[in-house]
């Protein structure tokens, strides 16, 4: 595994987590469907019962660790059946009644529900915006800091290293939601975080055909509690999903490069349009997040956010797109977009559009977006 440090992103992605070649065996062994394993005598691992371990997870977990923490042999990954299962596993395994947790107030739309649940267990929750490292101001006395950068859907960015140093100085552990960036965009553990957590449902796997989550850490003690939580909650990944996810990782670098180039092209094209306001993409040199993003990110992701003047205009725009599906989620090889306000969970304008650039040809995608803008003007 330590070899992984010397290779580039593409080489690591195509080889991530693969076992040593065995004659007559496939490169990536197929999914193992097993509720239990033959287990004569003392019940020792690794494989005893399907809720605890599965060989298909093991390979995927190694692969994700090689991408999130290349060369850090002490990094371990636990996979979960969704991003929310991974997020809940970290928060509910680490926090106790009376603890203080700091969350972003502009993060993933299910975080307010998580907040309610934490508060129901007597955990104090403070929130602050992602922009301008505002979470720094509410850290005193906190046990856990939750960072989401870039934030979904507003695409604000905070300085992971700076926040982590401030948190650690106060004895506070740090988890970073790395969903938008993917491990090829940003590696939170190298920036000091205790946990990298993500939804693998989005760009990591990139085909819009499965849900997945993961937690990576180099701290065995912290991970023991997360593993115990996975067992208690029974939050386990199907072997088929784990295998599909692993297969998808082989193209992650191709998809990430292409999709971030397409996102930049779409953002550049939108910049010139008078009806577009609040345009955000951390890869745009004049984006307010660009400076911090360029210090900690190697790719800026596939999501572009902007607003059209009204809800009706945004709906007409989405209708007029031919190459972009009106769908939630993001990160897939086919472009998607949605009017985010339709869910009601985010503090965004009515005409706010979250656009996820796929792997189409940039010229085709940009032409489709500009034509849909023109057609929706009426
Ligand atoms: C989608 C998403 C999640 C939740 O992941 P699921 O796989 O849908 O459970 C968490 N965080 C961010 C930033 C997301 O975009």
Automatic annotation (TrEMBL):
GO BP field: cysteine biosynthetic process via cystathionine; transsulfuration
SUPFAM superfamilies noted in UniProt: PLP-dependent transferases (SSF53383)
Assigned keywords, A-Z: Lyase, Pyridoxal phosphate
Organism from which the protein derives: Streptomyces acidicola
Taxon lineage: Bacteria, Bacillati, Actinomycetota, Actinomycetes, Kitasatosporales
Entry's Gene Ontology molecular function annotations: cystathionine gamma-lyase activity; pyridoxal phosphate binding
First-tier enzyme category under EC: lyase
Domain of life of the native organism: Bacteria
InterPro entries reported for this sequence: Cys/Met-Metab_PyrdxlP-dep_enz (IPR000277), Cys_met_metab_PP (IPR054542), PyrdxlP-dep_Trfase (IPR015424), PyrdxlP-dep_Trfase_major (IPR015421), PyrdxlP-dep_Trfase_small (IPR015422)
GO cellular component, one term: cytoplasm
Protein's UniProt name: Cystathionine gamma-lyase
CDD domains: CGS_like
Homology family: Belongs to the trans-sulfuration enzymes family.
Transmembrane segment boundaries: none
Residues found modified as N6-(pyridoxal phosphate)lysine: 202
Cofactor: pyridoxal 5'-phosphate
Enzyme Commission number(s): 4.4.1.1
Region annotated Disordered, chain positions: 1-24
PANTHER family attached to this UniProt entry: CYSTATHIONINE GAMMA-LYASE-RELATED, TRANS-SULFURATION ENZYME FAMILY MEMBER
């Amino acid at each position: 595994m330590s070899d992984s440090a010397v290779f580039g992103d593409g080489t690591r992605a195509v080889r991530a987590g693969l076992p040593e070649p065995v004659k007559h065996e496939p490169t990536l062994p197929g999914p193992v469907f097993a509720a239990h394993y033959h287990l004569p005598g003392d019940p020792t691992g690794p494989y005893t019962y399907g809720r605890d371990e599965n060989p298909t997870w093991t390979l995927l977990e190694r692969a994700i660790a090689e991408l999130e923490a290349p060369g850090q042999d002490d990094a371990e990954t636990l996979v979960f059946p969704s991003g929310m299962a991974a997020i809940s596993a970290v928060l509910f395994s680490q926090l106790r009644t009376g603890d203080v947790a700091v969350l972003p107030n502009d993060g993933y739309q299910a975080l307010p529900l998580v907040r309610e649940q934490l508060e129901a267990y007597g955990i104090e929750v403070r929130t602050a915006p992602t922009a301008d490292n505002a979470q720094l101001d509410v850290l005193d006395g906190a046990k856990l800091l939750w960072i989401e950068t870039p934030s979904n859907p507003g695409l604000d960015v905070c300085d992971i290293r700076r926040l982590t140093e401030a948190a650690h100085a106060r004895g506070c552990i740090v988890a970073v939601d790395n969903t938008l960036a993917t491990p090829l965009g940003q590696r939170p553990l190298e920036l000091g975080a205790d946990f990298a957590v993500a939804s693998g449902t989005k760009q990591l796997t990139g085909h819009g055909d499965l849900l997945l989550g993961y937690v990576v850490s180099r701290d065995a003690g912290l991970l023991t509690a997360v593993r115990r939580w996975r067992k208690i909650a029974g939050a386990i990944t199907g072997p088929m999903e784990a295998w599909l996810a692993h297969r998808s990782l082989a193209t992650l670098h191709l998809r990430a490069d292409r999709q971030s180039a397409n996102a930049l092209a779409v953002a550049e094209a939108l910049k010139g349009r008078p009806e577009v306001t609040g345009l955000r993409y951390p890869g745009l040199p004049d984006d307010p997040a660009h400076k911090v993003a360029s210090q900690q990110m190697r790719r800026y992701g596939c999501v572009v956010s902007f607003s059209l003047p009204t809800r009706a205009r945004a709906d007409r725009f989405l209708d007029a797109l031919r190459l972009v599906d009106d769908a939630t989620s993001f990160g897939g090889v086919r472009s998607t977009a949605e009017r985010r306000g339709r869910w009601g969970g985010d503090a965004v304008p009515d005409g706010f559009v979250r656009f996820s650039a796929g792997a189409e040809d940039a010229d085709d995608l940009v032409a489709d977006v500009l034509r849909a803008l023109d057609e929706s003007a009426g």
